[in-house]
Amino acid sequence: MSAPRIVFCGVGALGSQAALLSRNLPARLEFVDGDRVESKNLLSQAYVRQSLGKLKAQALGLQLRNFYRIETAARTVRVRADNATSVLEGAALVVDCFDNAASRRVLSASCRDLAIPLVHGALAADGAFGLVRWDERFVADEEGEANQPTCEGGEHLPLIALVAAVLARAIQDFLARAEQRDSMVTLTGVTGQSLVVLRS
Question: Does pTM top 0.70 for this prediction?
Answer without folding.
Answer: yes
